[in-house]
């Protein structure tokens, strides 16, 4: 293995969105063995980079589900943004459907002003429908969304009409399953986009060429590493495009069965240092 691509949420990060010391040490051990460790995430690059502020780790970052690749120094290396007028029209639909969204542009994450109140209302409704649901975990999810780096509320998508910035990715998010499915259905016939899911409460709208798999192909070529010499670890459907093309793939123990079935190996869950277990196992040459 010459390159290792790691997803963040549900993979490298635990449920509290922290990186454990064991995972840090495993990454450092891989780097010492000459392995290029890359982050491949649905997050914006600047938000991902902030997770490593206190860690001696400065990776290439495949961000916004493959719509961007940033160099270790933060410079943009590659991008596949949405066509601007199409992105604006999709944001208009999301607002009309009263779905929470985040628009990822260079240096910022923009969400509608109504978003906070909407998500907490949906949580309260979900509590009535599913009284045994872990409300603290849902609240943590929402607060993490709002605490992303360079996150800002905007009155409306129309605020983005006058900006020159590309829109790389649009995240739609709801605790109302029917509402989320209806929102998804609004975009299924658009030929120039891809729709992927990175969690049970969301979907992403992105350029048809934007995926973690495509971005990994581009980066591996730049680094002159064959895909057969690459490995990847992930937990969700937005990870499949990279898990399916590498020489060695691992699903997290917390992944859905479809993700596990697509991989060569299933490691432990993210709350049990599954990334570290995968790296340690590989370095010890313990795969059968």
Automatic annotation (TrEMBL):
User: What is one cellular component GO term in this UniProt entry?
Assistant: cytosol
Q: What's one GO MF term for it?
A: phosphatase activity
One Pfam family of this chain: Hydrolase_3
SUPFAM superfamilies for this protein: HAD-like
Q: Extract the InterPro entries matched here.
A: Cof (IPR000150), HAD-like_sf (IPR036412), HAD-SF_hydro_IIB (IPR006379), HAD_sf (IPR023214)
Q: Where is the signal peptide?
A: none
* Top-rank taxon, per record: Bacteria
Q: Any idea what this protein is called?
A: HAD family phosphatase
Species for this entry = Niallia endozanthoxylica
Q: What is the lineage of its organism?
A: Bacteria, Bacillati, Bacillota, Bacilli, Bacillales
């Amino acid at each position: 293995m010459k390159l290792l691509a790691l997803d963040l949420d549900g993979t490298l990060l635990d449920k509290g969105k922290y990186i454990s010391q064991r995972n840090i040490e495993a990454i450092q051990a891989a780097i010492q063995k000459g392995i290029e460790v890359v982050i491949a995430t649905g997050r914006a690059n600047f938000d991902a980079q902030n997770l490593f502020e206190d860690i001696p780790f400065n990776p290439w970052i495949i961000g916004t589900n493959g719509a961007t690749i940033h160099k270790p120094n933060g410079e943009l290396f590659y991008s596949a943004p949405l066509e601007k007028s199409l992105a604006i029209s999709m944001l208009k639909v999301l607002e009309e459907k009263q779905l929470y969204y985040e628009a990822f542009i260079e240096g910022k994450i923009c969400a509608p002003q109504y978003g906070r109140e909407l998500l907490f209302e949906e949580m309260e409704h979900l509590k009535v429908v599913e009284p045994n649901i872990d409300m603290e975990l849902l609240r943590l999810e929402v607060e993490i969304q709002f605490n992303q780096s360079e996150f800002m509320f905007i009155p409306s998508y129309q605020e983005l009409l006058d900006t020159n910035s590309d829109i790389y990715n649009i995240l739609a998010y709801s605790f109302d399953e029917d509402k989320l499915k209806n929102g998804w259905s609004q975009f299924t016939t658009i030929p120039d986009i891809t729709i992927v899911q990175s969690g049970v409460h969301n979907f992403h709208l992105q350029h048809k060429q934007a995926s973690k798999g495509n971005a990994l192909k581009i980066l591996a070529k730049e680094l002159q590493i064959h895909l057969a010499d690459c490995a990847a670890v992930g937990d969700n459907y937005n990870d499949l495009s990279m898990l399916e093309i590498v020489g060695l793939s691992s699903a997290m123990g917390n992944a859905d069965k479809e993700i596990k079935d697509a991989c060569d190996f299933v490691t432990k869950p993210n709350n049990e240092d599954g990334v570290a277990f995968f790296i340690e196992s590989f370095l010890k040459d313990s795969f059968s």
